[in-house]
Amino acid sequence: MDKLNDAVKAVREAAESLKQEPDLPSAKTKLDNSLTAAGETLNDQLDRVWRLAPADAAAALELVNQVIKAANIILSLLPTNHRLRFLFLHVLSASLASRFDVMAAVGSPSVKDLDSAVELARETIVAIPYLENSRRRRSALYQLSTVLEKRGMYKRNVKDVELALAAAEEAAASSTAADDEMALDCQVKVTKLLTILFEATQDISLVERAVAVADEAVDAMLKRGDEQTDEGAANRRQLGLNTLARVLGLRFEVKGALGDLDRAITLLDSSLPSLGAGDSNLAIGLDYLGILLGTRFEQQGDVADLNDAIRWSEVAVSCALSSDPDRPRKLQNLANRLAARAQYTGQIDDLELAINYAREGLRDAPPNHGERAKWLGNLGAFFGMRYALNQPSSDETDLEQATEMIEKAIQLAWNRGDALLFGSLVNTLGNILRYQYELGHGDRVYLDRAAGVLKEALSLLGPGPEQPFLHYCLGETLLLRYEHAKEGQDAEDSIEAYRQTLDSDMAPPTVRISAAVQAAKLLGGSLERWAEATTCLERAVRLLHVLTPPYLRNDNKQQLIRHFSGVAAAAAAAALNANKDPGHALQHLELGRGIISGFLLDLRTDTSALRQAHPDLADRFLRLSAQLSGQPGLEQCRGFQRSLPSLLPQEMMGEEPLGPNKARRRRSVSKEMELLLAEIRRQPGFEQFLLPPTGEQLMAAADPDPIVVANVSEFRCDAFLVERHQIRVVPLPQLCQERIIEESYMVQTGSSSSLPATLKWLWDALVRPVLDALGFTDGRLALEPKGTDPSDVIWPRVWWVPVGPLSGLPLHAAGDHGLHDRETALDRVMSSYSSSIKALIAGRQTSQPPPPLMSTAPGRAVLVSMSATPGMGRLEFTDDEVAMLSDMCPSMHLTPDQPQSLTRDDVLGRLRGCRVFHFAGHGISDPADPSRSRLLLKDWQAHPLTVDDLRGERLLNNPFLAYLSACSTAASEKLALADEGIHLVSACQLAGFRHVVGTLWTVSDAFCVDVARRFYETLRDEGATPDAAVCRGLHLAMHELRNASTETVMAYMMAATRDDNNEDKDENDSNNRGGRIPGRKRHNLLWVPYVHFGV
Hints:
Number of strands: 16
CATH architecture of the domain at 838-1093: 3-Layer(aba) Sandwich
CATH topology of the domain at 838-1093: Rossmann fold
Helix content: 55-70%
Largest sheet: 6 strands, mixed
């Protein structure tokens, strides 16, 4: 206090001297000097108040009172027209505003302080002499804007905020380039006030003005950037960038333009690493970056965004002192991100942390905090989520707490006039009420109440970002009420609500697709309005590609797609019910399946025609394809991590480097590819480049052999028969989705007793009607003289494309395989498979048909035998299998290459340049994550050879054959991802192999040798037509094994499979080539699992 007292004393003495000698120049100078010094002292002490306040409110209050007292004394000593009087009017206004802030932090502010601060700020502007009417006036206008803003926010008085905006705009308009710090402060103030007014009025033009002002400020700073390299200039630039990012984020919230969200994130993540660890703008920017990344995750589902959001939110919280008034908001941001991850992963630990952080933030925030309503609603939503995740042992008090908190939050939001928050909270309440009904309470009152609050909210709110969520929630509620009471109006209103959601560009693709599917189920399943149902589902199919943009990691795409399995199948079925052309229905079925593999196929398409016509476009396409085809890891920019040494302890930094630079590059490349594809399609002759196959292209793929696409949906089941001249449909009324799922489960879990019945049922319900329609009505051997060898028969060929749960069933083996009655697919046709017609077309386009085996230079055959695998049982016959094949290689014009190290990297390296890859060993299908299905080599426990590894390869020589003599290499055990065809066989195809032989489930070690022997003998003997020989070779091998297994009777089968019924047998039993799934029994039809995928 001594400095303040000394300053007042000096002014008092100088004023007294001037009073005694008013004409003495030195007396006037002495007063001016003392006033200038006193002004500096008071401002210094006021700065101390701002620094003290977060940690010690009592000390700050005592000091600010002393500053106010000193300013009042000095003003009393000066005449009203003194030219320096404005200095103390200004500091007194600022001091009163500071006292209001200090008192607000402890819950007892006085609005009189703000009233006085406003009047003093106005007096300051009037008191500034003409000659000082430049920077001094801008500072005074800025002060007036600040105190008017405080009063407007406290009193919820829009007029004060408008006046504050006018003052800030006047200050900004009078700023000059020479005073860039003041200019930036004024522009930031204008931007902030425009956003406040928007929140009060919902006038979107205010957001547009805010973005324009912030853009102008950043542009001006960047133009001066080369001239200003000091630390202050860097801080000002970051302040401007933070501000622009915030208003871009706000514009995204109200208009839904993803470009704004991406730009805001790019601005922050490219600028924040340049700041020092202790810079306040760094902590502010990281906090908001976490919010933006969390928002983008909600929109696009990239879990890398969510994990980065959590990390940056943790940094922001760790930087905040316990007394920081902004800490509660940072805690809430972190809680929101953790809750989002809990919902994504189903892990309760993240949710418990979120609840704790949310409670802590609410506890520490002042009772009148402006965001209390939102935080209270979030906490309520977390309790509702915990109830859901803890099923079936949930505590119903969670739902009770959720409802109580959300209702209280809704009232607070309505009282504050916060329309966006009000809508969001009503949506949450609607979900909670509906959930209470769904979880067994069965009381319609919950639905009536939910429908009431949702309809009321929609009637009160205009167009905005919450509207599609409210419509979707209303649609779900009315659908449940329709199912409860069968009132027709509820059905119509539910459909309309879903349509409103589907039509909204502001809703995330996940919500729009869900709305389309729900509307279609109601339109088709209940009301039989198939044309409308088809429209909804076809839009959903197109949105699947919006949901999975190229820059998303494959594991993220899997996570998103699994929620919408069967959408494409339903779209095709609905189209048929609506009497649409079969080709039209099939095109949409193709469009909605194999999305991940389809993207990789597009990147690896044949560009020879494009190169010949437009070499520059071809070069750009290949360059971008190479950048997009590599799967990004979690590793990120280490420079960003190094710039934050004092913010986080090392254990929080983790081993993974931070920063979304790699993801940002993939987004940029993805956008560049989008523009390039548009440019390519503008060139004559390339209008269809990488677009889905047309009807004509689908029929061309059936030349020379027909393609059967077996479709399964809840609406109906059909087979699309694609022939070179037509696409037609064979209805399959004996098939139903529920039975297919049940049979697929029985087969995959290995019930040997059920398999013969399953094969007979498949024959009656699907395969025989299809083969009859194609004209393949008799067993081939039955048409030949008695005793004819199967290898002398000309067998027709069929390509099977099973959809959804059918992909796990052996269509090629359908029939009754008794000794006498051979009504089977195996006796009528040769079978090959493809995951989609697009994959078949792409495989044929990527590589030319191979010449006869003996007409080319010797090729290399990579032969891998894993008789001994760490952690697995010994396989007795893999060495015999590979030795047999090695001996046969010269006769097939192949040179055997048997790796010695048998590690993942060694084997992958040898695939490059090989012609044949034969693997004999253990294979494991991973039902939890199909992309982690793997072949087991010596280092499999640390470095497994997975689907991801194989499909990440691009074998430019397009090798001829991969033969995977292991268990479950073509299995699709994850039903929700069955249409993606994620297994080891498809991965080899994506890597470049023209043909792949694999298995649907466990295979016998001993019989693998016989199958491989017969297969390669055919390939050797019929090598003049190698493509046909692959399919024919496997067909003949299965014929031979099928006949041997039946003629040797069950005693031989039991000896081969070893204690079929022994459930306690070692799960790594060496008789089969896969990790044994608990509960799996051995099949007695050992030939059935073998399948051929190819071209």
